[in-house]
Amino acid sequence: MRGKIKVILCLLVIIFPLLGCWDRLEINDIAIVTGTSFDLLDDKQYKVAIQAPLPGEMGGAGSHGGGGGTSGGATYYLDAGIGHNVRQANEDLQKRMSRQLMFGHRRVSIIGEDLAKEGIRKILDVLTRTREARLRTQLFITEGNAIDILSSQPQLENLSAEAIREIGVAGYELTLRDFLLDYQKEGDDPLLPVLTLKENISPDPELVSNQVEISKMAIFKEDKLQFFTDEDQTSGIQWILGRKHGQSYTIEYDEGAHISFRIVEQTCDIKHSIKNGKPVYTFQIKLISNLLENETDLNLEETQVYDEINEKLKNKIVKEIEAIMDETLSKGIDTFGFGSLLHRKERKLWNDEFKESWREQLENIEYEININSKIVLTGLVTEGIGIGE
Fold it and tell me: Where in the chain do CATH 3.30.300.210 domains reside?
């Protein structure tokens, strides 16, 4: 009897691996979504668009480069669904899809301006609720409709989603995780990079098309978009977030004469102190730069000239930081987590004095900006070419 049981068990062990995959999902049965856009329509419905690559059209004979398609057509499929919420919009889209939509490889999520002004809490819910969610997905806001950005035709990449991801990594990378951390902190408001379309410059009209760029930031109060930054404010944000390293930076020394630098290293620490029962914040900024271009007739070997250039550099940085600080604080927006810092370091003071009226007190917050700047390399010449001794 025992022998028969052993034989049966052995047969079962052998048979089970031969049963095959009962829940298989073949690669040619799925559409891998690389980018998603979310827009709000006039009737308060959602328009949700997806971008899925077409592997058979990406590269090989007949390929003509990024986005512009091949002899067989475009390199990706773009379509949108409409619904009262995001899931309903996805189902509307799935009805005419021959393949199952898969969101596990989504690289970017783009939210339209009108939707961002209404609030993006509901979008955050659908982006994080399922097991397919990826917190490393980059999050962006757009001027106008998000679907216009997703449907752009990049010249150097096959997919607009990949081009957007690369631009984000280059200096404006803020992920879904980053946004959630700021959004859920007490005394902190999030921000996101803004995608806009701009025509490239080419003498060949056939090569002129709308390209995606990031030159602004979107400032939020809780989950609602408040305003887009200008050039100075955007630069000020980069200084505060420590995102200037590796970038070039230009100051105007005299009218029409500029000096450009490469920021080799840059950090910013925000400290606080309590004076007369009120918090005072200090930005401690350190930067090391190399001189890239000098349009002036200055001799950078002279100590006085070096100090004057460095002082103008620091003055411009202070101006840019003040530009974003003054506007956010005057509107009761805590973009840089002053309240969160106070909540962590001075818990009793926060709970007793500031928690309930923090936004109202932001307008009167005091802050200081301390900059330690060093120009370590001035290049192979100390004066401009042709200036002489």
Answer: 232-380
* Residue that the structure tokens 């990049």 belong to: 154
pTM above 0.90, yes or no: no
* Nearest-angstrom CA–CA distance, 52 and 19: 33
The span from the CA of 43 to the CA of 276, in Å, is 52
Cβ partners under 8 Å of residue 158, min gap 6:
53, 58, 59, 66, 67, 75, 76
Options 3.30.300.210, 3.30.720.120, 3.30.2350.20, 3.30.457.10; CATH for 232-380 is: 3.30.300.210
Say what percent of the chain tops pLDDT 90: 58
Distance between CA atoms of residues 286 and 46, nearest Å: 45
Q: Residue 374 above 60 pLDDT?
A: yes
Q: How far is CA 210 from CA 34, 154, 203, in A?
A: 20, 8, 15
**pLDDT, tens digit, 9 for 90 and up, residues 123-145:** 998 888 877 788 899 999 999 99
CA–CA gap between residue 77 and residue 99 (Å, rounded):
12
Nearest one of 170, 313, 319, 309 to 232, comparing CA atoms = 319
**Cβ–Cβ < 8 Å for 382, 300:** yes
Q: Give the whole-angstrom CA distance, residue 50 versus residue 300.
A: 54
> What are the C-alpha distances in Å from 120 to residues 51, 148, 335?
21, 19, 17
Q: Nearest to residue 383, comparing CAs of 259, 256, 255, 251?
A: 259
Contacts of 59 (CB under 8 A, 6+ apart): 158
| 136, 105 Cβ separation under 8 angstroms | no
